Amino acid sequence: MIRAMHTAATGMFAQQLNIDTIAHNLANVNTTGFKRGRAEFADLLYQIQRLPGSSASTVGVFPVGIQVGLGVRPVTVSKEFVQGNLKQTFNDLDLAIEGRGMFQVTRPDGTTMYTRGGSFKQDSTGTVVTGDGDTLVPSITVPSGTLKIDIGKDGTVSALLPGVATSTQIGQIQTVRFDNPAGLVAQGDNLFIESAASGPAQQGTPGFSTGFGLIQQGFLETSNVNIADEMVNMIIAQRSYELNAKAIQASDDMMQVANNLRR
After folding, report:
1. Residues 6+ apart with CB under 8 A from 246
2. 163-181 pLDDT, tens digit each
3. How far apart are CA 141 and CA 171, in angstroms?
4. With contact defined as beta carbons under 8 Å apart, do 166 and 188 qualify?
5. Do residues 117 and 252 make contact, with C-beta atoms less than 8 angstroms apart?
6. How far apart are CA 256 and CA 263, in angstroms?
7. Would you kindly state where each structural domain of the chain is located, as residue ranges?
């Protein structure tokens, strides 16, 4: 009975982590480029009271045995880098990657980070930056007085200047990809840093380099969170939490019955 209490407690802890993950997904349902998390679990050790295949008698063996599990443990909360829907914004510096790849940015302290959020702006010098002021890499500076910015699907950036009939190329956007994007370390603010699990960043030209998606100007990638799926998962997690709590209550009732036994 004591063992059942501890086992059920691990189940409650696991479902609490599951609810935390679901709540984070729902909170970011409108976050540009957000990738949903998924909690994964594994069963704990087993106490083997009778080993399968052990001798049952002088002429046979136990075909199954008795293995009592000790609960569940969290294994990982992984990011699912599935393509989100594209939403048209008509903003020249709103960019979405259709396919694999991430934008590379540099923080004010020089740290290199990666993002799927393509809502870019111009700072006071014309440099293309994120909403938090992180500089797009390679750096692109829009000339003063530019009338229109055109960004091709291959990342070519052109600007139409006053008194000039044709656009002039001012830069080339490069994207990066990872062999295991789920191994990236989330830093908040839609940013990730590489890790030993993700592998090194591989830079390439959008649409031309193998495995790199296309740039779509005037679009943003929405979150890949599906509200209906998250609500169903939340209900399942809540009911699982309740069942584990009832298992603790049942164990307590059984202990009370045992304590009240009299000779």
Report:
1. none
2. 898 999 999 999 999 999 9
3. 8
4. no
5. no
6. 16
7. 2-80+225-259, 86-221
